[in-house]
Amino acid sequence: MTTPDPTRLELAITELKGSMDAGMARIEGRLDLLVQRAEHSDQRARDQAAEIRRVDDKVDKVDDRVDKVEAAAVTRAELDERSKRTIQIVAIICALLGSATGAGTAILIAVMSNGG
Fold this sequence. Notes:
By secondary structure, this protein is mainly α. It has 2 helices and no strands. It folds into 2 domains: 73 residues; 41 residues.
């Protein structure tokens, strides 16, 4: 067997070292890119969580306002019932006034016919 030439061995080692350095640089670059993407994804997740909280707060406020409006709102049936009661009260008042007018007229006629 022949002894390897030290110059060729050094050249092969240098080439191998260059290939290893280039491969490691590519791997480091890809890892850096993955770390950057992961950080960006984490930031987006935090931003979206904050936006969800803001929207939830707005929805809660709107729900509270709707509840207040519903509690204070008068329904169509309630308005109809109020209208019926008002008409009934006005009818009673008119009947009483009509009876009082009729009685008053009868009394006046009686007083005037008796020699007033």
